Amino acid sequence: MDHSPEHPALVRLRAELDAAWKGIGVLGDMEDVRRDRVVAELRGAVPDVASRAARAAGVDAAAAEIDRFAQAEVVSCDASVPTATIWDDIVHSAAEAAAAIR
């Protein structure tokens, strides 16, 4: 059994994914311009953190964390906002960024 503490880069990745996942659900409450900015930030920030985590803690560890969040159900407060599609794009981009380290 591995008793070493978890790598800080994975902790950061998990926090970023968790915040993004929680934020996705409230996109429908935002005005269009603000929502667009938030989505753009998530699409840039999450893959960036994923890339850093893969470099620091290993591609497999980062990919496992991303996969865990990719399977999370996304709940939306507004059916007109494609939150599931946005979430899929974010985690897919994060997985690509982590894999690009290889």
Describe the structure.
- This protein has 102 residues and is mainly alpha-helical.
- It has one domain.
- Helices cover 71% and strands 0% of the residues.
Highlighted features:
mainly alpha, 102 residues, 4 helices, single chain
Give a short overview.
This is DUF222 domain-containing protein. The chain contains four helices and no strands.
Overall pLDDT = 90
Number of helices: 4
Estimate the strand proportion.
under 5%
Number of strands: 0
How many domains? 1
Tell me the distance between the termini.
27 Å
Secondary-structure-based class equals mainly alpha
Basic shape: elongated
Poorly predicted spans: none
Q: Into which percent range does the helicity of residues fall? A: over 70%
Succession of helices and strands? HHHH
Radius of gyration: 14 Å
State the major sheet. none
Protein name: DUF222 domain-containing protein
Organism: Curtobacterium pusillum
How is this fold's topology laid out?
Elements: H1 8-24, H2 32-57, H3 59-70, H4 83-99
Organism: Curtobacterium pusillum
Protein name: DUF222 domain-containing protein
